[in-house]
Amino acid sequence: MSSKGRDLKDEVKFPVRAVIAAHAFAFAGCVGGVSFFDMQLPTTLQHLLEPVGVAAGTAVVMEITRLFVLGLLSARWRDRIAHMRFKAPLPGSWAFSKIAAEDYRVDLEALRSEYGPLPADPVEQNRLFYRMSKAVGDDPGICNAHKTYLAARDIAVICWLALIPLSMAAFMLAPRSNGAAIYAAGLALVAIAASMITRNYGVRFVQNVLAAVTAAPSISRPASSEVLSCT
Fold first, then answer.
1. Which of 49, 96, 117, 213 is the most exposed place for a label (fewest CB within 10 A)?
2. Which 8-state DSSP code applies to residue 101?
3. What stretches of 4-100 adopt beta strand conformation (E)?
4. Which residue(s) pair with 3 in the sheet?
5. Do 20 and 42 contact (CB within 8 A), yes or no?
6. Whether 172 contacts 34, CB under 8 Å
7. 156 close to 197: Cβ distance less than 8 angstroms
8. Transmembrane segments in this chain: where (predicted)?
9. Does the predicted model carry a pTM greater than 0.85?
10. Distance in angstroms (rounded) separating the CA atoms of residues 13 and 53
């Protein structure tokens, strides 16, 4: 979604890259002292350069991975991975049956009066929510909530996709196996937390849209072919 010339997909790149950098330095801290051990460098210089070298190399690899993986994965698969849900992963799929009731700002009766019976099917819920989100998408609060959700989703995808390869690399390269185990457990916890954060931001985005629509319900009913798909 774009708002007043803003491309949200470009705006979420910075937080995603920041997470990639954090992963890189965490990996460097886990396997530090491997690649420079065979070089004849003073100990102090070795300790200064080694983490930076490993972190820089890991960051480059992960950035390339981000470009290819996020480019190859469809938005639907990114939503499935981030939400850890295969069927109807989009938050809009539960907009009226679950999420709306959790926000006191949303008046379901007003929505029913405007649009008739609200759909129960996840696909139909997402279609109606998509139409609503397009109508109020230029609102700064809605735009920021959407941007935050997209950033959280892509970060969660990166965390899950990095879990297995970085854990395996840590076990192969880390000087101490217990450090690799702690690192791998940390990666898993971060991935789970990222999915939970994505869900929470998705719920907030849906609630902000519904609250705005409740305040000024003027949206026509959606065409049957319209389905929300954040890209």
1. 117
2. G
3. 6-7
4. 6
5. no
6. no
7. yes
8. 12-34, 54-75, 155-174, 180-198
9. no
10. 23
